[in-house]
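User: Here's a chain of 141 residues. Predict its fold as tokens.
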Amino acid sequence: MRLIEGPVSPEMISGIIAKGQQKAGCGAHTIFLGQVRNDLVDGREVKAIDYSAYEEMVSMEADKITKTLLSEFDDVVWIEILHSKGVVPAGAISLLVIVSAGHREQASKACEKAVELVKEKLPVWKKEIFSDDSSRWKQNE
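Assistant: Prediction complete.
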């Protein structure tokens, strides 16, 4: 798990995919990309999200997530998670999760669970920034 400043770039995504391809014993790589939406909230358009994180706790929780997934899905070989901190504009990627496994079913299920655990457990907070430069803290749903 890595926290990165700003959006997850296409270069980072392709680098992670290339790293996954080195896992020749894997038959499946499932990738989740979380993108900032330009939602309308009370008539205001979201232009960005400013992510804040308790970095030391993120690392500890990410380790727990990885251990949970590896114990629950015995076919999973590799898990990589990138999460943004700082400002990420609408349309940009703020979360990347890739799970590599011997077979697609476990890769897919483990990736879905990883995303749910990231949303539920990681101490990362989101402040929506609107087109009128107002803002509000957002709750995970």
